[in-house]
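User: My advisor, Dr. K., asked me to get a structural model of this assembly before our group meeting. I'm new to this, so sorry if the format is off. These are the inputs:
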Amino acid sequence: MEKYCYQGSRRDFLRKSGTLAAFYLAPTLLVKALPLENIIPTPAPKEKIKLIVNGVERSAEIDSRTTLLNFLREQLGLTGTKKGCAMGQCGACIVHIDGKRMNSCLSLAMFNNGKTVTTIEGLANGDQLHPLQEAFVVNDAMQCGYCTPGQIMSGIACIREKRAASREGIQRYMSGNICRCGAYQNIVDAIASVQASGKPV
Amino acid sequence: MEKFIGIENDSPRADAVEKVTGRAKYSAEHRIDNIAYGVFVCSTIAKGTITAIEEGPARAADGVLDVISYKNCPSTPGYEPLQADGSKNPKQWWGLKVLHDNIVRFYGQPVALVVADSLENANAAAQLLIVQYEREAFETDFNAARKDAAKLKTSGNYSRGKANAIDEAAVKVEGEYNIPIEVHSPMELQATIAVWEGDDKLTVYDKTQGPKSMQGTLARLFSIPDKNVRVIVNYVGGAFGNALRGWHNVPAACIAAKKLKRPVKVVLTRPQMFNLTGYRPQSWQEIKMGASADGKFLSIAHNAISMTARYEDFREGIVNASRFLYACDNVQTSYKLLPLDVSVPTWMRGPGEATGCFALESSIDELAYQLKIDPVALRLKNFPEVNPESKLPWSSNYLRDCYEKGKELIGWNNRPVTPGSKKEEGMLVGYGMANGVFGAGRGQASVRAILQDNGILVLQSAVSDMGPGTTTAMMKIAAENLQWPIEKIKFSLGDSDLPPGPTQGGSTTTSTLGTAVHLVCEALKSSLQALAQNHLDEFKNVDTKNIEIKNASVVAGENNVAISTLLKKAQKPSIEITKDSQGTNAQELKHATNSFSCHFVKVHVHPKTMEIKIKEVVTTADAGKIISENTARSQMLGGVVGGIGMALKEELKFDHSTGQIINASFAGYRVPLHTDIPKTTVWFVNKPDPIINPIGAKGLGEIALIGLAAAISNAVYNATGKRVRDLPITPEKLGYKGK
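Assistant: The format is fine. Below is the predicted structure of the whole assembly, which you can bring to the meeting.
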């Protein structure tokens, strides 16, 4: 029986990842069918990546299983991008990848090799806040502040995508961003005010 | 584009810029060298014992530092039953105890902590742990079990007046109300980083609503002095009650860090958040009300049962508001607990009252239709001039103002008197209203003021701010008291080394902490007046009471000297004063102390699909003086959103054949989204309470939500003529049967 090891090239890793996923999802089942000595977990392959984060080139050798979210938070210390679910269901981790909004928890860091990533930390120009950051402050579009970076990154994209022409449009195209404190109305007010101002985002 | 009513002239939330730039650091985000990551492996049975743990493959996995389970978990003093004080229930720490024994008490209970050098390695290795169990029969089905009286624990009965008064009532209503489990689900995951220096000095970065209480908990847990424990919580990413106490992640991180002599971080996953950090317990209620033909309440009987864990009791005040929110001579309430094989519930925003007011306020609405009296008029008719339970006068009760303004703002005149009789844009239209009430307490707090010679005033207290804007409110209290520029005031919190502050909960923080801020400002004022008289020639002959503090200066008539100059003349680099504020209760104040809210809701219901769309909410509150209008308004908006979730969306579901929660994610557990939010208007009475505290503020956090679900349900009834007593209200419960 094939041993559950994985080593070698990235292609090899990707080829085997299906098997691995099944293994991780149903360990007890598989383990019962296998002698324990056949389960020899070996290190996940490392990947070298280079990407531009908030205008700065970042090179790193990473565990290939690292999500972009965990890479930003745990390795780069860019904790402005929040982890709310790690399942793509809450929007707290939204960043811009090559200008488009993306749940960073759903993207492996290595898939972003060569790409340009903007996080909440990359919006302000020194003390000069981005217009939507400023609007969030003015409209008190936050309470605990934890969903706020995701809401702002998503809100900027919402305006760029031309979905912010009406309150209903904003609500619909922001519904991937959960706020449990319930700052929704003020968030929509903030996005609507920037849309109305015509300021470039 | 229309902008809903905002606060144009109020200063922004104090920590807004930190939050919008991502600089605000939440508990999992502190950079600690050499940190290790702990991941829980959780039970896959609901009840039984662990018979074997095969650690081989997990330990062999890359980067794994340890696998901690009951087999090798170091003994912890606090894990032993608390026997020093006989009155303490030895079970009381079970909600905190973890990896302690081989007993499984609920599905998803942590049975091991896998610690590795990276999160990826810890997650992978956690999947390799093989745990075997011996199962026992379990019970998780609240509705099935509550019918067996032998399984219930009585938790208090109350009675006043005649028990059979309902017999004399001209009009009676009776109904059973069911509310499922709701889960706080704050956006921030529960997180702890534990760092030991030696064997007896512990620093913990923890998501907690009470840094001081967590410090005490940890000191007892590890039997070390309080001063050797430092709890840091700069920001709390929402909590709504679930961080009022510590959960398994706290001791697990501390134990692992101690065992490995290395900092350890444990962050719960979102599915774990649904099971390991408390929830609003499932409940059943029964209300019987009787009124005279002209609408006077003759009798209220309110009985409730709520679930708890078998290993720990959790009770809340579900039936309490029925005793005092309306004038009624004959009131009986009972409350029972139903222990099940589940994790322990905890306080969730509007604890108890949110549940109870859904039933009470729905019943009153029903009574209004039977009596053919407007629901607001019926409430006015039964307005209690004093608290009918304690017979004490209200410290303040401006519910009447709320009724009047709420009716005006929602357009109550447009409400159809006959349910289901009005359409708008092809939709059934309904209006509803309901009240909320919560105790307005005041606890103990201590605040230190440090006035620097540059005129910066720093206030400090060991509290946390989970989002209501405590920092902002405290700065505003000081700014008003001392006529000080708000940009020269700083409020620091979130560190147990600061003077003891209250745990943030129960709508008491502003009242409690604000009183201490007020006292320390008064003391500082006296100190500055005396200093001015003693050290400034131009003030030598001025009576201290005629020396004003204004704009960071001392002022008397024409004389105006900056504080920085005064401190230099007095040769003081700074002034430091700490003041304690003692707590007080209703009996001491000889007044009943409560906050009140009244919510008005307009809904549309699709006549065929029965889909409910909330069109507008007007939420009004008597919360005493509003300290910070901006953040107070936001808190009210948040309560509305929470109420919408409670009324229309939220329900945690079990598979009772396994005892497992089946919708433990944001995909399965439905929370309000942007698209669910109607235009919401907030209105405050904004009259100071003259009794509770010197600042005139009552609490706000709970009443923002309490009553909302009933207001929505009442509006849905007005639109459709269908009374739904089981939350959440869904199209199916309104009679939609599919195409």
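One thing worth pointing out at the meeting: Chain B touches chain A through 83 residues (CB under 8 Å).

User: Perfect, thanks a lot.
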